[in-house]
Amino acid sequence: MGIFQRLLIRIARALESANVPYMVIGGQAVLVHGRPRFTADIDITLGLGIESLEKLRAIADKLSLKPAFKDFERIARQTNVFPVKEQPSNIRVDFIFSFTPYERGAIKRARSIVLGTTNVHYASAEDTIIYKIVAGRPIDIEDVKSIVNLQPDIDKNYIRKWLKAHSDVVARDLAAEYREIERRVSKSLRK
Q1: Cβ neighbours of residue 181 closer than 8 Å, sequence gap 6 or more
Q2: From CA 134, how far away is CA 149, in angstroms rounded?
Q3: What is the pLDDT of residue 115?
Q4: pLDDT along the chain (191 residues), means of 10
């Protein structure tokens, strides 16, 4: 078992013990649903709002996760992200506070994966796709392609519904971007 998996197990146990709903997102979720790729950090969406920053800081302290920045409180309040680093590995973990019905629902849809003897909650394939398309970086689009390619039974209606809902927020037609990815994956499979 690798260093990331061991850290994820420790975090999952601590969050469960504190009754904090969560889901692992980002590159770590892609490793579950898509092709293997390098990722240097861990992103976790929490079923907590920013008002729970002190509770989360206490959990992080018990795990030897130290704030990544001196002014972490200001950063957390501006970005809804509490960035920490695990000591001594220096692995960065971004705890992301949730505040939308979509995020809370996605956490409830999270998929439990057993690491060692611990259940770790990962974003579903559909929610991983949604997060990645919203982010929209080239690496995110490649991640979406790999998930679409490897997960033929994904709930496309669910994905389209939430991409449409997020389109206004990011001022992009996310559903159209997803349709284009599906088209490209379908075309590459026919070759």
Answers
A1: 133, 141, 144, 145, 148
A2: 19
A3: 93
A4: 91 97 96 89 96 95 93 93 91 95 96 95 98 94 94 94 92 94 83 63
Q: How far apart are CA 188 and CA 68, in angstroms?
A: 41
For the chain, domains (ranges, CATH) are 1-123 (3.30.460.40), 125-191 (no CATH)
pTM for the whole structure: 0.93
User: What angle do helix axes 138-150 and 26-33 make, rounded to 10 degrees?
Assistant: 30
CA distances 33 to 46, 50, 51, 146, 163, Å, are 20, 29, 32, 8, 19
Specify the DSSP class assigned to residue 50: G
The contacts of residue 59 (CB under 8 Å, 6+ apart) are: 14, 15, 18, 20
Other C-beta atoms closer than 10 Å to the C-beta of 155 total: 14
Contacts for 131-135 with beta carbons within 8 Å, 24 or more apart? Answer: 131/25, 131/26, 131/29, 132/30, 133/163, 133/174, 133/177, 133/178, 133/181, 134/163, 134/166, 134/170, 134/174
pLDDT at 191: 63
